[in-house]
C-alpha cells in the first residue's frame, strides 16, 4: 500500500511539473520571436515525453496488479521462501536458487503467463529490474493474448 501512495504522490508532483513546464513553453511561444518559439516548442517536448512515460508506467503497474490479483485468487502467487539477512535484505544466494527454479519453469512452459509472472518476481528479488520488467511485460502480453516478442 505504501508503494501505491508513493507512486500516486510522485505522479501528482510530475503532473504539476508538466503543467508548469507546459505553461512556460506556451508563454515562450506567445512571445513570437524565432528564438522564443524554438525554445517554447523545445520546452513543450519534455512534458509530452513525460506524460507518455507516466502513462506507460501507470498502465504497466495497473496490468501487473491485475495479474497479481488474478493469480492470488487462483492461489498461484509465489511463496516468499527467500532467506533474509538480519537487516531484512534478501540473501543473494537464496534469490539465485529461487530464480533458477523459476527460469526452468518458464523454459518448460513458455506460453503460460503464470510462470512468467513468477519469473518476473524472481528477477526482482535478484535485483535485476530490467529483466523483471521484461518478464512481466511478457506475462501481461500472454495473459491478454497479444503477440509476444522473442
Return Rg in Å. 21 Å
Helix content percent band: over 70%
The largest sheet, given as strand count, sense and whether it forms a barrel, is:
none
Molecular shape: elongated
Number of strands: 0
Return the string of H and E elements: HHHHH
The end-to-end span amounts to: 33 Å
Number of helices: 5
Q: Strand pairing plus helix content: what structural class?
A: mainly alpha
> What ranges have pLDDT less than 50 throughout 5 or more consecutive residues?
none
Q: What's the mean pLDDT score?
A: 91
Number of domains: 2
Strand proportion: under 5%
Oligomer class: single chain
InterPro entries: TPR-like_helical_dom_sf
Organism: Streptomyces xinghaiensis
Keywords: Membrane, Transmembrane, Transmembrane helix
Transmembrane segments: 35-55
Q: Can you tag this structure with a few keywords?
A:
150 residues; mainly alpha; 2 domains; elongated; transmembrane helix
